[in-house]
Amino acid sequence: MKLSKLKLMVAGATLSIAASSSFAAECIAPANPGGGWDFTCRQIGKIMHDIGAVADPIQVTNMAGAGGGLAYAHIVNERDDDGDVIVAASTATATRLAQNAYSGMTSDQVRFLGAIGADPGVIVVAKDSPYQTLNELLDDVIANPGKHAFAGGSAAGGYDHLKVLMALKRKGFTDIRKVKYIAVDGDADAITQTVGGFTSAMTGDISGVVSFIKNGDVRVLASFTDERIEIPGLNAEIPTAKEQGIDVVAVNWRGLYTPKGASDASYKKWSDALAQVAASKEWADAMEANGLVKFTKVGPDFQNYLNGVMQEVQDMSKELGVLK
User: Model pTM?
Assistant: First the structure.
């Protein structure tokens, strides 16, 4: 979508705003109510106020369009120096910026505050799969790339696809175009492809496969997290890719950014507030209720992580032909 269209669409964005003069700040969710970005704004904003990290309630505005690009253009072009606005972001935001999906806009046009929760990425096989570990699967893919395929809920070149390629590259495999990927509509459809024997494995997020794990339809070979994760109701932990010698952390993080031109004092205010939410019981309860795990990177720590991930996404996207 052209930048000019993004700017024109701002006027037609769907707004969800509570009428109150007491709001001192705003959180923009770049999607309609009910999705992950909406959850980020509403939950984090509410907890910020509930625990006293901010003095007044935070207004939530839903601004759907262009996969987050409409809100991004709005901030960059219309509110670059506004210290009273924050915007929900996720791994999808970073991936789209790395792949130039926001009409030439770049990640350095805003300031990322951080991420304080995540939906862990996983590699899943059918219950009768011969592969018992992530290395067994990847070694066979490297030896026989033509006989394997992965299914995922993102488009080809999207983050579900790239997670597998990151893992393979850590093992020295470079001909990533040989790895087959089947893009389907969500994690459930990807599981169906794998359970049905059409793909060797499914790549997605843990929240989308919990019910299949509990039913015994699938096994998780690895999570792309720093630490092992547990499935509620199951007396078992999922091993990480890192402990299997594959240093990949790939999660769908939930976080925020602010306008680049806002003051340093504003940035500190919001980053401090976000860190307070991350440390709160209220946020721990919200994560547990929504299938998220702890993933706290705020300020420079998060920016360093983001820079590395985006560079890798960009490099692999070029290798795949998704990005020129």
Answer: 0.86
Structure tokens at 13: 């964005």
Residue 122, φ and ψ in degrees, nearest 5: -140, 160
Number of domains in the chain: 2
Nearest to 222 by CA among 201, 244, 192, 195: 244
Residues in the chain: 324
Q: Where residue 148 sits, what CATH number does that domain have?
A: 3.40.190.10
Mean pLDDT along residues 169-195: 94
- Average pLDDT, stretch 291-318? 92
Same domain assignment for residues 294 and 181 = no
Exposed, middle or buried, 158 (CB in 10 Å: 0-12/13-18/19+)?
buried
Amino acid identity of residue 29, one-letter, is A
* Average pLDDT along the chain: 91
Q: How far is CA 16 from CA 29, 38, 60, 83, 221, in A?
A: 10, 10, 7, 20, 41
Structure tokens at 121: 């990425």
As a whole number of angstroms, the distance between CA 208 and CA 176 comes to 25
| Angle value at C-alpha 119, between 99 and 195, nearest 5 degrees | 90
Q: How far apart are CA 292 and CA 1, in angstroms?
A: 32
